[in-house]
Design a protein that fits this description.
alpha/beta, five-stranded mixed sheet, two-stranded antiparallel ribbon, 7 strands, about 10% strand
């Protein structure tokens, strides 16, 4: 292994650091065990207190491994009361209710030859409707079949008119694969993150001989039917009063002129998430996503979003407290006490937000207004004193830390974005964090790790379309498969149709 100071590649250096960290943790555990063994060999009495100290050392090593500096999970204060539980926790692994599974009743009867009483030799008769019941969860594997559509022909006795019965709507005119099949492929790739080549192998084990190009042709054709619906969703999300914006990388493995790192841009609201995959991360890309938007944009502080705020009074930027918290956690190494104070204060803001009940996607406007009023009052009474104290604390310690240290950068980061960070105090519709956009990008991130991005520019367009439809359906509380299937059927029947999740029952 080369010396650390000779490594220039960031990824290689990170892997080396992780390896060294695991080695240190392992050695700490071994050291604690060997100390106890040496004490016993030297005739020392290993008292329970020493055993307890060794166990504590091992526990700390394990905690460091689980919740190291790169993790956002922090231990809660010991004095924090545990939330009251309405019901005692269930023990064991009892049967879990399955309200969404269909129930199939399979009767079991005794054969006639076994209906003889072993006591008196008489005949065993049924005891009315009395039965013993038990349940088991079974599985019906996916299967593929060839469906032959026989379209009957009709004629008049005059032989002047011949009519053929209509068949099902076709995904591709004259094509061999159904709409349901194309949706099955798209669902497996963009919801379950299965590459097309893997699907080919899975289908082959079930008797279907097919190749990945054929699978791609089906989802490409399906995407063309759904393109008007996709564009309508991209326009509709911009009508929300508050949107969340974020971006993450995406790999394009196309021709040399286009290949490289592209970016998935996400704009989300409470009930929608829309995506576009573009070749750059510039202000022009952000303009393409949000050009006509007027309202509040929640972001992570990326500089290109400031162009919207400078463009006119119609846009206001809100900033994410979760990102600020991460900055202070990163500064823990050099200034542990300052980091602890900042993280605890920010944690109080999250505690206030947890007092506001979450609403279902179908909540009525009066319910939403009551929630906003409660949120406004809690933030004014409890959150504002916390932000005032944080501002005073930051200004007090601003000059007491090294400007280029992680703690110095964290304080400057917070002060630079202070107007956007405190916008949530004025508007109860503004969330505390941009985590909603990050959650909306989770499927994109998992997908790129499984199928490594797209092979063409058209592939990026298809990916953005299906991620938009599937994720929007989930946020709206609608089954993703049912929504996309119904949207596709309506689009094939009437190309101008653009069904939204609320239109699907």
């Amino acid at each position: 292994m080369p010396k650390l100071e000779q490594i220039q590649d960031r990824d290689t250096l990170q892997q080396a650091a992780l390896l060294l960290e695991r080695t240190v943790i392992r050695l700490q555990k071994e050291n604690a065990t060997l100390r106890a063994q040496i004490a016993r060999l030297q005739g020392q009495i290993v008292d329970p207190q020493m055993e307890l100290d060794l166990l504590r050392e091992q526990l700390e090593a394990m905690k460091h491994e689980l919740y190291g500096p790169s993790s956002e999970k922090r231990p809660r204060p010991k004095e924090e009361p545990q939330p009251a539980q309405d019901e005692p926790p269930r023990r064991g692994h009892g049967p879990r209710p399955q309200p969404h599974l269909p129930i199939v009743v399979v009767p079991h009867t005794l054969p006639e030859e076994d209906r003889e009483c072993t006591v008196c030799g008489g005949h065993l008769d049924e005891m009315g409707s009395q039965c013993e019941e038990s349940e088991e969860i079974s599985v019906v594997e996916a299967s593929y079949k060839v469906v032959k559509h026989r379209r009957q022909k009709y004629r008049c006795n005059c032989n002047g008119n011949v009519v053929t019965a209509p068949g099902p709507a076709k995904l591709i005119p004259g094509g061999r694969y159904s709409v349901e099949f194309a949706l099955h492929v798209a669902e497996a790739k963009y919801l379950d993150h299965q590459p097309l080549e893997r699907q080919v192998r899975m289908m082959g084990r079930r008797g279907l001989d097919i190749d990945s190009q054929t699978l791609w042709d089906q989802i490409d054709a399906l995407a063309r039917h759904l393109a008007p619906t996709y564009e309508a969703l991209c326009r509709k999300v911009l009508s929300a009063e508050v949107v969340l914006a974020d971006e993450t990388r995406w790999q394009l493995m196309g021709s040399k002129g286009e290949a490289g790192r592209w970016w998935t841009w996400c704009v989300a609201s409470e009930e929608m998430a829309t995506y576009r995959i573009l070749s750059h991360r510039s202000a022009a890309a952000a303009q393409r996503m949000l050009a006509s938007y007027r309202g509040v944009i929640m972001t992570d502080g990326y500089e290109v979003y400031r162009t919207f705020e400078r463009a006119g009074p119609g846009v206001r930027l809100a900033h994410c407290w979760a990102h600020v918290r991460r900055k202070f956690i990163e500064g823990e190494d050099g200034y542990p006490e300052l980091s602890r104070v900042a993280v605890e204060q920010i944690g109080k803001l999250f505690e206030v937000e947890r007092k506001v009940p979450k609403l279902d996607p179908g909540a009525t406007e009066p319910e939403r207004e009551r929630q906003r009023e409660l949120c406004r009052r809690l933030r004014e009474e409890e959150s504002k004193p916390v932000t005032d104290e944080l501002l005073r604390w930051a200004l007090e310690h601003r000059n007491g830390v090294l400007p280029k240290s992680k703690m110095g950068k964290a304080i400057e980061y917070m002060l630079k974005l202070w107007n956007g960070l405190t916008l949530f105090l004025e508007d109860p519709r503004v969330p505390l964090t941009n985590n909603g956009a990050e959650r909306a990008l989770r499927g994109v991130v998992v997908g790129r790790k499984n199928h490594y991005g797209s092979r063409s520019k058209r592939g990026t367009e298809v990916a953005a379309l299906f991620y938009t439809l599937f994720e929007t359906a989930k946020l709206s509380g609608v089954d993703p498969r049912n929504y996309v299937l119904e949207a596709a059927r309506r689009a094939i029947a009437a190309p101008a149709a653009v069904p939204l999740p609320a239109d699907i029952t």
